[in-house]
């Protein structure tokens, strides 16, 4: 097997600081984990360093990172230029209460990528961006309902959490205003518009919903959504928090030819620092213009902070057409390899370009994914607990082939799902 550890930097560890760190998580976090999306059934490995496509855990063990913080890090960890940009900004002051030059520069390069959008507003997370987009659509239309796919994840906003079925703590009045259809279910879509068309403020769409298996939606379904939304005066809000990395101008426009009323993004455009963004035409974005009567409020203490904006600018500058294409080809190579080796053991590799979603054929998919996580970690690969994976620009074909080899061993070791009758596993 190819040694992909060559040239990796040595981590200087202070064992005293990291002693028992895994167990210490359980003492500080409910459920022993800092975010629900990181839940692994037992104390998660604690990472102490990342460089390129590697991460190191507190025990000093090196892993190839296929999570990249839930698809955020297009350039892997601690990229020299991205890090230098963040440090430069930090040295000039971490944040200000007035506009800064880095946010304007970031906005200019971002808007260049989506020429049908006139304006952008930043947030600190994708959650805030999708929530704000929904509020904008409601304010513009004077309607309350939103329509989305079930399941699809759009962050932690009350209404949007309903789309992934997590309604504990969400007021019933809020979830009652959310209409759900299954991905590619055109019949249910037409029915929803027939019944509620004049009360729908927006359709919120992720064109490759990861929680529904990471398959790109069918172009025919997407075309129906766009035309029904337009017919009924509902805004089309496309959530590209993940998928914006798949094409310079985002997935919706590049692959489906869509010109959404509002495009929401985040993750990759922040160079590894917290970010969200809402982009759209002048008439739609005008609802955020405080000089206008009945505008809506959009704040955020850390919105547009220079450190994120500077790192994000550097990351975007390094991610032009050729590099996006090369990364998508690497993702394709990984997906094909994982499909071939995982299929006999009940695993499907979906996704598009640089994003790969591993799906188990199992009655207990979450448990199965957790089992795979732990085996992969032993084999030197850091997966995301959800099975949403991505490649990063420091990788090349050799790294991908080595990853496929390692994952093939994981599929073998894990064997077929007990509930799956068609696998060949041990
Ligand atoms: C499609 C999508 N939308 C929105 C979000 C929320 O973004 P954030 O975690 O930055 O709040 C996520 C996060 O994973 C996402 O995948």
Q: How does this structure look, described?
A:
This protein is α/β, with parallel strands linked by helices and 426 residues long. It has two domains: 15-79 and 320-414, Aspartate Aminotransferase, domain 1 (Alpha-Beta Complex), CATH 3.90.1150.10; 80-317, Aspartate Aminotransferase, domain 2 (3-Layer(aba) Sandwich), CATH 3.40.640. It contains 16 helices and 14 strands. Strands 4-10-9-8-7-5-6 form a seven-stranded mixed β-sheet, sandwiched between helices. The protein has a four-stranded mixed β-sheet with strand order 1-2-3-13. Helix 11 links the parallel strand 8 (235-240) and strand 9. The longest helix is centred in the C-terminal third of the chain and has 22 residues, at 321-342. It starts with 14 loop residues before the first helix and ends in a 12-residue tail after the last helix. The model is unreliable at 1-10 and 421-426 (pLDDT under 50). Pyridoxal-5'-phosphate binds at residues 70, 125-127, 130, 153-155, 206, 239, 241-242, 266, 276. Belongs to the class-III pyridoxal-phosphate-dependent aminotransferase family.
